[in-house]
Amino acid sequence: MTGIDFQRANLSAREPVSFVQGxxxxxxxxxxxxxxxxxxxLLATCNRTELYLHTxxxxxxxLFVLCKTAGIPYDAYTEISTVRTDxxxxxxxxxxxxxxxxxxxxxxQILSQVRNAITLSRRLGCADxxxxxxxxxxxxxxxxxKTETHLIGVPTSAAHRGxxxxxxxxxxxxxxxxxxxxxxxxxxxxxxxLYQAGCEVTITLRTYRHGExxxxxxxxxxxYDDRFSIIDxxxxxxxxxxxxxxxxxxxxxxxMQTPPKLIVDLAMPRxxxxxxAQLTTVYNLDDLGQLADENAGERExxxxxxxxxxxxxxxxxxxxxxxxxxxxxKDTAVARVKYDHxxxxxxxxxxxxxLTELAVHKTIDMLLGGMKEILTAAQVxxxxxxxxxxxxx
Length: 393
Description:
- With 393 residues, the protein is α/β, with parallel strands linked by helices.
- The protein is built from 14 helices and 10 strands.
- A 6-stranded parallel beta sheet has the order 7-6-5-8-9-10. A 4-stranded antiparallel beta sheet has the order 2-3-1-4, with helices on both faces.
- β8 (236-239), α10 and β9 (262-265) form a beta-alpha-beta unit.
- The two termini are 45 Å apart.
């Protein structure tokens, strides 16, 4: 696979490869027709573009394939792209689908994007069984990580650190007027901390549903679309949303009569336009210092889940590679049994039960005898258990 993402490429470099669905539909058949490509899938989002290939030989350069078919300059992306092969590529896709490689750590939107990528490739006849199975395990792993762990994006310690920085910058918070943009977990926690510090807190809401919308105790609410009217003249604004767009731009703040004294941006990606720093003081996550890693335990649990899905994929993949050999083993066993002298008397007597028993015994002896150097009793027991289930036992 090759990847061009937010970690190494800025927005202007990502834009030429941020393909919309119509472009992907055009590109995939061209990529599939490339010499040596057996299957392909193209994942294109605002933060990453990744091409996955299953190929006949290992010397195919996926970045070259992508650039050649998309008509973009290869040299422009060699320094800002990543190429992974084999197990590295498999492990990366698993982490991508689980949100562990997202700009918003633990983001679950990527899961549906990974699923859509392989669904589209399958519909266009560009996904072979290997990529189809790999993506299926990646999506399953992503679902399990989402339901069995609690990965969070920005650590909640950012809210505490942001309030501390605001207290220092404003020489105390008691009596200050604060506006919190965002009513998610981070926004509610920040609003609560500010209220406890003595602020008059207003939290913006996109919608309000009685009995469903949670509003921190002591806090007022205000419509998000009319946020500028309450931000104008505020001492402090904290923005903590998961929006892909800015909640405040330079133009919006410049138009205010009295811009807020301090703005704290607790979002990733950022909520606040860089240009606002020309008008007032702005803190973002980088200004808060080292934050606690609240994902350490959950990350280990997620890693274990993804390793299980990888193991299942490789078990399938190795069995698939062995299928031609299994067919040859069957033919060889038939030939060996067919011309074994021990069968001549049974043929003459028409003893079908005896023939069956002898044929099975000799075949199993040959097969297991050929694997005696690598077989364990536990593996044989597992095989027996599966065979007995097939017999209804």
